[in-house]
Inverse folding.
């Protein structure tokens, strides 16, 4: 059984309502939905009975974490169409382009991805690796 390397990832946000609106829409094109949440957090996955793999957590005040340079979260896409839809949807809902959809053979053979800065400034990506089974 392949269980992967990471259990979950969480990122800080300053405005949970704005971030939920963005991620609800953008992650839906990749087949993910909000399956957990509260006043200051939201979790995303593929099934409400399986623990969420991506979380956003509202943090405010002087000690709140902020998006950092170099950090990015990559979401797996099933095909190029999902990568394109991810990019267009994110731009239409407050994201900023950080690398348009396209092949990036310098990363690996069959890599096709797109990069976005979410409304908080965190870099996210959708990628399909077409050379993998």
């Amino acid at each position: 059984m392949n269980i992967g390397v990471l259990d979950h990832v969480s990122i800080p946000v300053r405005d949970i309502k704005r971030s939920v609106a963005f991620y609800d829409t953008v992650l839906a094109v990749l087949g993910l939905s909000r399956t957990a949440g509260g006043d200051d957090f939201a979790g995303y996955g593929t099934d409400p009975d399986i623990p969420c793999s991506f979380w956003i957590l509202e943090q405010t005040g002087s000690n709140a974490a902020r998006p950092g340079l170099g950090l990015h979260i990559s979401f797996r896409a099933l095909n190029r169409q999902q990568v394109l839809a991810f990019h267009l949807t994110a731009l239409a809902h407050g994201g900023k382009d950080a690398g348009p959809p396209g092949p990036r053979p310098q990363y690996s053979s069959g890599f096709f991805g797109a990069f976005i800065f979410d409304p908080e400034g965190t870099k996210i990506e959708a990628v399909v690796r077409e050379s993998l089974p």
Summary: The chain has a mean pLDDT of 90. Residues 56 and 105 are 31 Å apart (CA to CA). The beta strands are 9-13, 33-37, 41-45, 54-58, 72-76, 96-103, 111-117, 123-129.
